[in-house]
Amino acid sequence: MLRYPCLVLDHDDTVVQSMKTLSYPFFLYILEQFRPGSYMSFEEYVCDCHHLGFADLCRKRFGFTEEEVKKEHTLWMEYVLSHTPDAYPGIAQIIRTYKKMGGIICVVSHSSEANILRDYDAHIGIRPDAIYGWDLPEHQRKPNPYPLLDIMERYQLKTEDLLVVDDMKLAWKMANPLGVKVAYAGWTDVGVPKLAKEMECICDYSFDSVTKFADFLFLNS
Questions:
Q1: How many CB atoms lie within 10 A of CB 57?
Q2: What CA–CA distance (Å, rounded) separates 171 from 50?
Q3: Helix H segments across the chain?
Q4: Does residue 20 contact residue 86 with C-beta atoms inside 8 Å?
Q5: Separation between Cα atoms, residue 24 and residue 85, nearest integer Å
Q6: How many other C-beta atoms lie within 10 A of the C-beta of residue 193?
Q7: Phi and psi dihedrals of 174, rounded to 5?
Q8: How distant, in Å, are the alpha carbons of 61, 108, 175, 177, 199 from that of 144?
Q9: Predicted confidence (pLDDT) per residue in 155-198, tens digit
């Protein structure tokens, strides 16, 4: 019997390795196009994504208009068509085993559904049961609790049936008010020590490797 009937997985830097190799280099390109001469260090970028989320990073730090936010997303979607991030070693096996054992896999992410499906097809070999991504209206995206509420209604689950797995604080902001448990994906390769410490303190569980996460999920299952 699974400890949690439903895994609510983040995507970028939880399942796939994308911030260092894709999203941050692309953001520097966007800054050069939209705000020539502007710069943001990798640590600053990670911290703002952690606390604000990407859209508000653009708005609050660099004054992007709504049209510029939309244009950035259009350019990003074109870019990722030819750039597929690698999955973290071992994560695909966890997801496949979890599904075989009857678990429900939902993805709550700031990636678009097309990108998530592409990555699952390339690396996992199965698709999530449900995806709540960037395609949703902004007021329904993480950290809004809408994805979790919809998952519970759709699959007739209780708060204790869900485990959110993420590397960013926005997931905790989404889950904590509902009483849903959160596991920090501490195996991320973009960990900033002060943010990792914060996540370890506020999350219900913390795993510094995919192997330890698997042991937690499946030991005595």
A1: 20
A2: 9
A3: 24-34, 42-51, 54-56, 62, 66-80, 91-100, 113-123, 146-155, 169-175, 193-202, 210-218
A4: no
A5: 13
A6: 8
A7: -75, -45
A8: 21, 11, 9, 10, 19
A9: 999 999 999 999 999 999 999 999 999 999 999 977 688 899 99
Helix pair 193-202, 42-51: axis angle to 10 deg:
20
**Structure confidence at residue 80 (pLDDT):** 85
Task: Report cis status (omega within 30 of 0) of the bond before 143.
Answer: yes
The encoded tokens of residue 142 equal: 């993480």
Nearest CA among 184, 8, 15 for reference residue 84: 15
Backbone angles phi, psi at 73, to 5 degrees: -65, -40
Does the reported pTM lie above 0.85?
Answer: yes
Digit-coded pLDDT (tens) for 6-46: 999 999 999 999 988 899 999 999 999 999 999 999 999 99
As to burial, measured by CB atoms within 10 angstroms (0-12 exposed, 13-18 middle, 19+ buried), residue 167 is buried
Q: Phi then psi for 18, rounded to 5 degrees?
A: -130, -25
pLDDT in tens, 123-162: 999 999 999 999 999 999 999 999 999 999 999 999 999 9
Q: Which two tokens stand for residue 14?
A: 């939880």
Nearest CA among 139, 202, 136, 137 for reference residue 168? 202
